[in-house]
Sequence to fold (257 residues):
Amino acid sequence: MDPATIIGVVLAFIAIFVSMILEGGSPGSIFLLPPLILVFFGTLGAAMAGGMLKDTIALGDSFKRVLLGSVQPADALVDDIVKLAEKARREGLLALEDAMKEVQDPFLKKGLQLAIDGTDSEELATILEAEVDAKRKADKQAATIFTGMGGYAPTIGIIGTVIGLIHVLENLSQPDKLGHLIAGAFVATLWGVLSANVMWLPMGAKLKRLSELECAQMELVIAGIINIQAGANPRLVAQKLRSLLPPGSVTEKKEAA
Fold:
């Protein structure tokens, strides 16, 4: 689990609440039920209206993935592929059937099975790359919902403020209540802007980043399987795959004498 999103959101809320306290306000004053209902449910409704029902249903899984999702270290994945390459070079491609039981990555397992079944390398690459493209499109759609909510929320908040100001104008005959009513009216705008910039837009960016990392690792797997299928030298496989990793993600290892 990568806790960056949880830590970031909590840190942002702490900064907001501390600033309110330092200015003499109370964090509890912004927790008003009507604007919270309008902003969050209104934003969800607008996002639902702009997409398909299945996209909205998948929002829960996307939310869970943003908060709890993690990516296997790329260098560890390279090590796993190199071990498989060594076994295939020593004992043959069919020997990988037993080794597959220890493979945790489902995409790597699928690719190995295709290679063991004798699938042509070009066809194998086409099948796996199609899966990568499908995943990239699905992730893009999931991220679009969050970024869309980030766009709708401030406007929904403004609608809430206008509704609140209408209520203020209805009570001009009671000056003693106007200050409280005006403050309450602007709470909706606050939650609209806050939820967009502290929650929805960062979550959309996190999904895009997760997708980039996962798709890059899938492409790494494709390159590794093709090299294993070709019977390439394991050291050469390791060098090729590590050359595909971003700077800073490669752990230097001493080659055995």
